Amino acid sequence: MKNSLFRCLLLLALAVAIAVPSYAGGPGLSGAIFTTISDGSEVNFNIYASKDLVYLNGGPPVGGTGAAGLPGPGSTVFGVQISGVYVFQVTAPPASGGKATLLSTDAAQCRVFQVNSNGVITGLAGSCQTHDASNTNTNTGGVTVQLIPFNDTPNNGGEYKAWVTPIEFFGYGSSSSACKINTGTTGGNCNVGTFGFVPQYSKVDNFKVRVSNVREIDTRFIDGNGNFIDGLGITWIDTNGASNNKNSYYSLDLDVIHEAHVESPENGTHQIVVADQTGCTVGTVYLNGTALANTGSQAVSVKVLPSYKNITLRVDVQCQ
To answer: Which top CATH class is 215-319?
Structure first.
């Protein structure tokens, strides 16, 4: 039954592929993904003792139920009605000026999951199932998906990047059979995007395994009385142009102190998009303590240099 469903979804994906419009800029795919532990009880738990402890959470983050779920079945994404089926991969973040390294070792059709209308992962949907998705996600009521098998990262800081894209956009624009998810290949020979994942159609999240050095970009929202505001959101756009949504929250155990937290950013320039939202009209924005020239909603360019070790780069937003 699962194989029949998957074949139907593949036919749907191929049928709509020719109608996929060119991307016109902006923050990209809506919603967010997060790495977590097996029961989903932690959000943005980004430093793990071993690879087998890393699971994927597609549901909403701290800050409100349904606040940032992935687009579900029947949603229109870039002009295409999608099935709510997603493909994922693990790569090493690209070195400065270089390319990412594919770390996922199983075939692309084994790295497929289904979400419901709230963007919560409900189970695997691929034609083969090499990933554990048996744990109930206590944060969303769905399940979590274990990311192994994937190779060790060549990154000296122990950094990894998880990617997710709707199946309708996997390998979009490719005429190569290596990009077709039902060929039994990993997608590693695909020249479209990053191993078939086009950044503007994808969500990403970085994490670390067994590291002592910490690099992070943290955004804080501050009210008129100097108090930090939790539950407010940013969009992080990485060096490839892929994006993810983050919310400010407080967790002493995770050392997240009223911040929208980006873990392990790779070398290069990242964008932190801050915009007016309920609870905050953006005023002055500060980068590492220095007020930026422009006030109001904007994309803040944050440079991460190879020399940065054990560093927190801060974007502070004064709310009016």
So the answer is: mainly beta
